[in-house]
Specification:
Blueprint (H helix, E strand, L loop, with lengths): L12 E9 L7 E9 L8 E5 L6 H25 L7
Antiparallel strand pairs: 1-2, 2-3
């Protein structure tokens, strides 16, 4: 994995499979889960889930990275500029 949160090239173990997400009273939804693990033990294992059955595990991991970077930015904007608060 390249450029994992500013760490440069970083090796991760990735495994994935498809499942049928079922909830009583609701239609079943096919999903793909992706489990990522740091073989060095510096990062906690994380599980990701997608309902896009055409997506490859590496693509789902890229989506997660991009979303996390946006969420961190939005949280910093809220904290420092007061966006989405009563002060607006």
């Amino acid at each position: 994995m390249s450029n994992w949160y500013g760490r440069g090239d970083y090796e991760l173990d990735i495994t994935s499979a498809t499942v049928l997400w079922d909830k009583t009273g609701m239609p079943a939804v096919p999903s793909r889960w992706v489990l990522i693990r740091d073989p060095k033990g510096q990062l906690k294992p994380q599980a990701l889930l997608s309902t896009d059955m055409t997506a490859q595990p590496e693509e789902i991991l890229q989506w997660f990275r991009h979303r996390w970077q946006m969420e961190v930015t939005v949280e910093e904007v809220r904290a420092h500029l007061g966006v989405e608060t009563q002060r607006q």
